[in-house]
Design brief:
Elements: E1 3-11, H1 16-26, E2 30-39, E3 42-50, H2 58-72, E4 74-80, H3 81-87
Antiparallel strand pairs: 1-3, 1-4, 2-3
Helix pairs in contact: 1-2
């Protein structure tokens, strides 16, 4: 299984989760775990996803998620699990 970490941060609006999850489902990316909070009007979501069966190239997915975030007014970032782990290793 290949995993990636997706983070979404920005002002809370209706439909953020729906738009991101719809894109992932259409791309055959499986959500393994999801956590989201809203603090004083700011939305924060972190997802762990399985990218083993995705229908596009990884780089194309990263670009599409960033564009999607721009469309809905949030920042969407995606990192492969190995890179995320190395960046946050103590």
């Amino acid at each position: 299984m290949k995993k990636a970490i997706i983070t979404v941060v920005g002002k809370d609006t209706v439909g953020i989760i729906a738009r991101v999850c719809t894109y992932l489902a259409e791309s055959r990316v499986n959500i393994l775990d999801i956590s989201q909070t809203i603090v004083q009007g700011y939305f924060n979501m972190m997802m762990i996803v399985d990218i083993s069966n995705m229908t596009s190239q990884y780089g194309d997915m990263v670009d599409a998620l960033e564009r999607l975030g721009g469309d809905i007014g949030v920042a969407v970032k995606c990192q492969k699990e190995e890179i995320f782990d190395q960046m946050h290793r103590i």
